[in-house]
Amino acid sequence: QVQATTRVAYGPWSSPVMLSTAGGDAWDPQVALGSDSTATVVWSRADGNNERVQATTRAPNGSWSSPVTLSEAGADARNPQLAVGSNGAATAVWRGWDGSSDRIQASSRPAKGVWSAPATLSTVSGDVYDPQLAVDPEGMVTAVWSWWNVDHGQVQTASRPPGGTWSRPKTLSSCCDDAQSPRVAAGPDGRATALWRATQYGLNGHMVAATRTPDGSWSAPIVVSEVSLRAYGAQVAAGSDGTVAAVWERRDGADDRAQAVVLVPVPEDGRRKR
User: Fold this and answer.
1) Above 70 in pLDDT, residue 137?
2) What is the pTM for the complete model shown?
């Protein structure tokens, strides 16, 4: 079962509260907070026939709502991810089975609203996996995932502006790379950064990044780690000033080492601050 405990500032933790309903195993909980401290939790739960994605919310100083099922009936759904914007709107993404392959699906809920019917983000045949999600201060939501394209993985993305609809998926990774394990961070003004692990022609896996500018266009992918050393386990984060930090592990002989790069935005006048 999925349980939760809460704590007010400087206060003790509450007793655990059961969020998922009895009668089926539940796992993979994800939690996010809105700016008003409204909490949202999503998870996967077996309903006796299929795995379903469910969600619940808790208003500040309130109680948890009854679980709502987000994914479609009669189809498996797993690996949910969750993001809540500064306006309180929540978005969940997950892998959903369409009868022949997994697809990336999403549902959204405006602040104090109800969850939408699921939308399918990935549009081509072939399994997809490892969905990730980020939302920027303006409410732009960006999803990334891996797509198995015949004999190698590729990283794709889709985005949704506040109050709008999801864009068509776009492939970010190079055609010859085996790309997987994407991560995404959203900064101010519609900027987003995707980071993933890529392997080409049997070389060691390396970290690759692409950036979306405020006009919605994505840059070409660039290698940000040392190509000669195996890298994995990437994470990426964006600050409110647009600074982006990426970290990962790399194999250095007999040891695993942590590495990082930082991207500092250039002001409009072209002069970096000290």
Assistant:
1) yes
2) 0.91
